[in-house]
Amino acid sequence: MKLSDNTVLITGGTSGIGRALAAQFLARGATVLVTGRSAERLDEVRAALPGVHTFVCDQADPGSVAALCAEVVRAFPDLNVLINNAGIGLKLNLNDEARRLEDLEAEIRTNLIGPIQMVQLLLPHLKRQAGPVIVNVSSGLAFVPMPLKPIYCATKAAMHSYTQSLRAQLKATPVRVVELAPPAVRTAFNAGQEDINVKGAMDVTKFAEAAMRGLGRGRDEVLPGLTPVLRLIGRLNPRALIRAAEAERMGAAGAPRRP
Ligand SMILES: NC(=O)c1ccc[n+]([C@@H]2O[C@H](COP(=O)([O-])OP(=O)(O)OC[C@H]3O[C@@H](n4cnc5c(N)ncnc54)[C@H](OP(=O)(O)O)[C@@H]3O)[C@@H](O)[C@H]2O)c1
Known about the structure:
- By secondary structure, the protein is of the alpha/beta class.
- It has one domain (7-226): Rossmann fold (3-Layer(aba) Sandwich), CATH 3.40.50.
- It contains 8 helices and 7 strands; from the N terminus they run βαβαβαβαβαβαβαα.
- It has helices spanning 16-27, 39-48, 62-75, 101-126, 150-169, 204-216, 227-236, 240-250, and strands at 7-10, 31-36, 53-56, 81-84, 133-137, 176-180, 221-222.
- The longest helix is centred in the middle third of the chain and has 26 residues, at 101-126.
- The radius of gyration is 19 Å and the shape is globular.
- NADP nicotinamide-adenine-dinucleotide phosphate (NAP) is lined by residues 11-18, 35-38, 41, 57-60, 85-89, 110, 137, 139, 182, 184-185, 187-190.
């Protein structure tokens, strides 16, 4: 994709990857729109990234997503790039009988249903633009399930699958569809989860620079950092992280630990 002359909507731009991508696009002269759930956090982004436009939107709420899409198309008729970035990733123990179904569904609504709804509502508009691009942010964990984050990995595997089908269905249209699959990146996303995967996590600015290089090269799949390794593991040894979790549960002495 071309990296200049864009009007870019980035969901989840109050921190981490979304915010770093917003800075990259702003530096290239783009008009940048970011979303988040909290007006205060969006105020902070406006102070840190002068020129950015912000919108309160809860991606897990279909009404909120519909209102956002109507508003941005009305206020920014040149909108040509959608980056479906907002997401949550929860460590969940599925043995926990007290957990409410609504809590389990929140991740699916945020990571999968919200982005699909964004695409559906903005697609008619994007098809009429010059250089339209949809970037879906998945994860290296789309390729290998990690039992500690069962719903998250399922949503990202679904995002990977959906993005491939979307690309195929839009082939005859001007809309390009790109999957951006981050490896572990040091952001708030991993706060409190240092036990999982963040030891070799990538710096978020370096990640955003690598992502921009990949987007600029026009690749269908942009896989910065260690993501290609995860994808290879997913092909050669798809149960690798499941086996590692099982080994960890058994403990060194071979005695099963409590789930
Ligand atoms: N960091 C990693 O290691 C990593 C690895 C692979 C993939 N990813 C993916 O990269 C994307 C960004 O993650 P990140 O690391 O930048 O995480 P982050 O720093 O926690 O940022 C997440 C962003 O999503 C927004 N968000 C969360 N729930 C939302 C909702 N319901 N509605 C609207 N916005 C919402 C947050 O905004 P508010 O909280 O202000 O609403 C925040 O701006 C996610 O899709 C994640 O799955 C991250």
